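TASK: fixed-backbone design
INPUT:
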């Protein structure tokens, strides 16, 4: 069985203001974070008792959380052997990236329509992060990964279609685990700043076609990185995160 970092389930809502309805919801969210942060990686095996002891909860919410993760394709139950984290389904990830592309390019086109009401405050907040001098850029890969996710979600949210934003959030959550590997090297962090900056400038100038073109190229680059991911790289990312 694999050994994972000891961590307790937070008793208070997380910093992103997520409100959990049940203990099983808390366990579910924590286990997804474990996978996303490479505390649990494809191939790792564990038992319900191990998770229950580590998180300080009974086995009932652990089992409920694991069945939910099983339905989403993150884990599988092993006959009399506990559970296992499933290998990545890269074909599915690429399909999700394609869907993300449609949602985000549609959103930026809408953001550039002068007769449409959009949430400009979200765009101003993004500018405060991404349109800064090079010397003020963050080199913290974890922080940049979080900001990157927020950047793309904010673009869709600012366009004002709540259903588009909801679907986009679901896609974002499902690809989070592999997107984080995009920020393990400084050149990718630098490129993200440059590309986000150009997209924002095009949007603020109401150049929809240019913004969509830049965004499409940006996502395609990230999608290409996904194709290069190997199980070894995942293990290396987890090792780096523990130092």
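OUTPUT:
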């Amino acid at each position: 069985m694999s050994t994972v970092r000891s961590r307790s389930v937070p008793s208070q809502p997380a910093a992103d203001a997520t409100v959990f309805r049940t203990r099983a919801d808390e366990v579910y969210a924590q286990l997804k974070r474990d996978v996303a942060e490479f505390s649990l990686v494809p191939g790792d095996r564990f038992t319900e008792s191990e998770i229950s002891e580590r998180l300080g909860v009974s086995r009932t919410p652990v089992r409920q959380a694991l069945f939910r993760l099983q339905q989403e394709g993150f884990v599988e139950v092993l006959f009399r052997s506990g559970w296992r984290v499933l290998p990545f389904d890269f074909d599915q990830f690429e399909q999700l990236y394609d869907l993300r592309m449609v949602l985000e390019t549609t959103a930026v086109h809408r953001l550039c329509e002068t007769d449409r009401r959009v949430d400009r405050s979200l765009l101003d907040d993004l500018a405060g992060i991404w349109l800064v001098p090079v010397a003020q850029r963050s080199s913290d890969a974890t922080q940049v990964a979080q900001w990157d996710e927020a950047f793309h979600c904010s673009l869709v949210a600012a366009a004002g279609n709540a259903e588009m934003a909801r679907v986009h959030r679901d896609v974002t959550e499902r690809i989070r685990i592999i997107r984080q590997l995009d920020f393990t090297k400084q050149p990718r962090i630098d490129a993200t700043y440059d590309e986000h900056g150009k997209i924002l400038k095009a949007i603020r100038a109401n150049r929809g076609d240019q913004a969509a073109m830049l965004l499409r190229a940006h996502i395609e680059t990230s999608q290409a990185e996904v194709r290069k991911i190997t199980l070894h790289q995942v293990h290396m990312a987890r090792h780096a995160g523990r130092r």
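COMMENT: Strands lie at 45-46, 75-78, 82-85.
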